[in-house]
Amino acid sequence: MEIPVMDTKTEPTITAAVLLIGDEILSGRTKDLNLAYIAQFLAARGIDVREARVVPDVEAEIVAALNALRARYTYVFTTGGIGPTHDDITADAVARAFGVPISHHPEAVRLLQEHFREIGREANEARMRMARLPEGAEMIPNPVSRAPGFHIGNVFVLAGVPKIMQAMLDELAPKLEQGRLLHSRTVLAEVAEGDLATGLGTIQAAYPAVAIGSYPFERDGQYGANIVLRSRDVAQLDAAETAVRKLVEDLQARVPEPKAWT
For 9-62, what is each residue's pLDDT tens digit? Predict the structure, then answer.
């Protein structure tokens, strides 16, 4: 199956959304470890994660979120809900979102039957639910536990277990269109964020191709901020970084020496 890619002549960046599925995430019982990993994995390939959502194990909620995201972004990555239990309904929801039936995929059936035979477990009805794929979907190999993920259209359906999800990402990476890399620089400012605000606003207006973010901290009574600059235009990034460093140096020269950090 050919994965649709946004026309980069009209859209200079390749975008993505992440849909985290599971009651256990919303309840706080399980701490999500997948979003940051996926975002970093895609960033290294020039793909910008623009949105992330968390939805419960409710089919209508999954379908609504999936249809909204897949219409808006180049790619959508889902995690969770493709195991053997009754509350693993992601595959059914994806089939409903695409308006296609779902059934046991012959190759997935073969892989799982072989796997369970090798490890001495019964290929019962519950375990074989993991071989069900929407019509037209293709498997994403799972080198860890064999139960596959799948992709259909611009949607990639991955496991929720971090180790398995990461292995699936490695498998599907060659299928992803790569965009222009987003470069990043960080400037440490040992002055309060409020003192930086006006100057940073002026620099941002002068360099619209550079995204400038301020991330404040407090350490041993000393206030400061990490100024992060991101851009695909290296020349603009260099110039904006120079301006930010000059701003920080000027401000730091006007305040007392910061406390020593331990």
Answer: 444 589 999 999 999 999 999 999 999 999 999 999 999 999 999 999 999 999
In what side-by-side order are the strands of the sheet with 138-140?
47-55, 14-21, 75-79, 155-158, 149-152, 138-140
Q: What is the DSSP string of 143-186?
A: TTT---EEEETTEEEE-SSHHHHHHHHHHHGGGSPP-PPPEEEE
What is the reported pTM? 0.84
Main-chain phi, psi angles of 74, to 5 degrees? -60, -45
The secondary structure element, H or E, covering residue 47 is strand 47-55
65 in Cβ contact with 53 (< 8 Å): yes
Q: What pLDDT, in 10s, does the model give residues 65-121?
A: 999 999 999 999 999 999 999 999 999 999 999 999 999 999 999 999 999 999 999
Contacts of 162 (CB under 8 A, 6+ apart): 33, 34, 37
Contacts of 117 (CB under 8 A, 6+ apart): 123
Domains of the chain in sequence order? 14-175 (3.40.980.10), 183-253 (3.30.70.600)
Q: Give the contacts of 15 (CB within 8 A, at least 6 positions apart).
A: 6, 47, 48, 49, 50, 72, 73, 74, 75
The Cα–Cα gap between 223 and 217 comes to 6
